[in-house]
Amino acid sequence: MPLVHLLSALTTLAALERIEPVDPHDGAVLVQPSEVRFIETKWSETVLRGRPWVPNRRLATLAKGTRLVVRGTVDSRDRSGCAGKPWYAVYPFGYICSTEVRTSKRPPSTSLALSVSGDRTLPFDYVLVKADGAPLYDDEEAARSGAAKRTLTKGMSLAAARTRSVGDQTFVETVGGQLIPKEQLGWLGRGSEWSGVPLRGDALGPAFAWTLRDKTPVYAQPSRTAAKTSEIKRRQRIPADDAILSNEEGRWWPSAGGWIPADLLNEVVIIEPPPGVLQPAQVERGNDQWIDVDLGEQVLVAYRGGSPVFTTLIASGKGSPTPRGNYPIWAKVASMTMANQDYEDNPYMVEHVPWVLLFQGHNALHGAYWHDRFGQSRSHGCVNLAPKDARWLFEWVTPALPEGWTGYLPGELARSVVVHVRDSSLPPAEAFIQERPIGPPDPALERQRLEEAEERRAKRAEADTQALALD
User: Fold this and answer.
1) Does domain 125-187 have CATH number 2.30.30?
2) Which of 51, 194, 346, 426 has the smallest number of Cβ neighbours within 10 A?
3) pLDDT score recorded for residue 345
4) Ranges of the chain whose pLDDT falls below 70
5) What CATH topology corresponds to 205-269?
């Protein structure tokens, strides 16, 4: 799932500064007073750096027109990049080359990144490719001449900006300005209306459960051979009860005068903070957030310290299981396009996936606009969330990103919010293990996978050629 877009009021900016401060006198950095109060970015992917020189680590990416508060200037020491031009030190953190911005009379927006208006649940309108071979054109000239940049595969989805007529044909123009014949596409709608619920208190154990099926059966006795007394709709909350029991057929929840098998429920279970989820460097900065993802129950719970604050249903990896382990979030991205890697043989693409929290390699917590099967595993490996839940989680995880900030990369993973991924359906010794390394994809491993894929494809092509020769 490669990055395409990587990467508030002043109270939001102040909160950001507390989480990731940058010392203006650190090392060789000397911030001088500036008469400029506000600046505005000029380029579509403006880079905010951790220190005022190139190369230095990228902290964030900003969209064109993003306004920032200036806290001073730093003389350039670059031989290239920002050579001969000053750097701006900005709030809440970081430095930006003065050649990439212009001065502004207006303060930053008070909105958050990728906000939505009115009753919308999604930041874009989305369309679905209905059949293999749909042509994608770079522009109107290419559409007129029939020079497709590529063809799309059934099931791919794109973010749509508008419809356009080119000659006697109607096209859908994507947010990125490309064109696809309208008859090749179907509208995806407004996304799931599902949303989770806030939690209070810190009692451990089952809090409640959601029913998994549209017609969840209720049995007169805790046995599947007993008479069914009623049925309950999907995603109804069943309160936890001290009478939850286990027998040879499994666990049973009492409800509606009968019993529901636990495997037909998504149980919300409150746990103590496991080792490793509250990193010392993170807590020292005043942040005790962490996230529990239970693959067995397909439930997510967000915590502050030992107290749960929010829970919802998820859809985790099915064909490619979501890896268990403790993973500090390594990037926040407002929206990004996800697609198959070069070493994967089955093409797929979902454009402008909103509210993305990358926690391990290519795996992320993110909004899913293309299905409503939350509570069941079905993804390519990521943790899918309903749009409302994805937005809530994205804005809750610090630092909150102001409008125009398209991506954020924590300076130190030791200070980042940890995603704790476990599988309660497995035996206790297997429910939690550290399956993968933390952080972004390993370039060496990515190259190895590509080399293996190329070798595999070459052997397949050779076998196909030999088969044709025999025919």
Assistant:
1) yes
2) 346
3) 73
4) 1-28
5) SH3 type barrels. (2.30.30)
Classify each residue of 409-418 as buried b or exposed e, where b means 16 or more C-beta atoms within 10 Å of its C-beta. bbbebebbbb
Separation CA 123–CA 62 (nearest Å): 17
Do domains 10-104 and 125-187 share one topology? The answer is yes
Alpha-carbon gap, residue 226 to 117, rounded angstroms: 50
Question: Domain 10-104 class?
Answer: mainly beta
Please name which of 320, 328, 295 lies closest in space to residue 440, comparing C-alpha atoms.
Answer: 328
Residue-level pLDDT at 449: 78
Per residue in 397-415, pLDDT (tens digit) is: 999 999 999 999 998 899 9
According to CATH, the topology of domain 271-440 is L,D-transpeptidase catalytic domain-like (2.40.440)
Per-domain residue ranges for the chain? Answer: 10-104, 125-187, 205-269, 271-440, 445-471
Per-residue model confidence (pLDDT) at position 27: 53
Which token pair is 205?
A: 């154990």
Give bridge partners of residue 39 from the DSSP assignment: 68, 103
| pLDDT given for residue 19 in this prediction | 33
How many angstroms separate the Cα of 228 from the Cα of each of 81, 140, 157, 213, 380? 72, 61, 42, 15, 36
Give the global pTM: 0.89
